[in-house]
Specification:
This protein is α+β, with helices and mostly antiparallel strands. The protein contains three helices and ten strands. The model has no long low-confidence stretch (mean pLDDT 76).
């Protein structure tokens, strides 16, 4: 018993600090969860594109935007990325991208299995005069649904999107394409 009393006398500062620390930590957690709710904490959205006005809604909005990007494949492009041997074309199992605007340091991508969007997009990128439409004839956004393939050639690139989901881009004998959800490059 004397050993314990002597130990307490020597270590009383440590013991008091321990219990004081536990008390402070407990009251902080209680206050944070009880008094400072994310729904009650205002958020200023003036420097963002978010419409939320409190922290909870802002976090939910960011989560939903990120989830939408992942579900549409725009983030997944970076997983399993493959390159053509001349590094001008890249592909994932979701889209094929080309270094079309070489001097602007930007790429143009065409998504796999997204024909109803990409058939218009490919014509906007290459220009309608550089494109051939198979199975139909459409201008702007007026396709009667008979189009099966759009193929365009300009700036040393040829790209093609098909109703089957197939996407292809090539230049200088090198290419990448996606067929049946699998990207292949040479």
């Amino acid at each position: 018993m004397n050993k314990i009393k002597n130990l307490i006398k020597k270590k009383y500062k440590v013991i008091i600090s321990f219990f004081l620390g536990m008390f402070v930590a407990g009251t902080t957690v209680f206050a944070a969860t009880y008094y400072f709710k994310a729904t009650d904490t205002t958020y200023t959205n003036s420097n963002s594109t978010l419409s939320s006005t409190n922290v909870n809604d802002a976090l939910d909005e960011l989560y939903n935007k990120t989830k939408a990007m992942v579900n549409t494949g725009y983030i997944s492009i970076f997983s399993n990325l493959k390159f053509s041997s001349n590094k001008k074309i890249m592909a994932s199992n979701y889209m094929v991208c080309i270094d079309y605007y070489a001097n602007n340091y930007s790429v143009v991508c065409f998504k796999y299995n997204n024909f109803n969007v990409e058939k218009y997009r490919i014509r906007r990128v290459f220009g309608s005069g550089a494109c051939t439409v198979t199975g139909g004839n459409f201008y702007a956004s007026n396709d009667p649904g008979t189009t099966t393939k759009v193929s365009c050639t300009a700036n040393n690139f040829t790209c093609e999107v098909q109703k089957t989901g197939y996407v292809y881009c090539g230049t200088a004998g090198k290419s990448c394409y996606i067929s049946s959800g699998t990207a292949t490059c040479n």
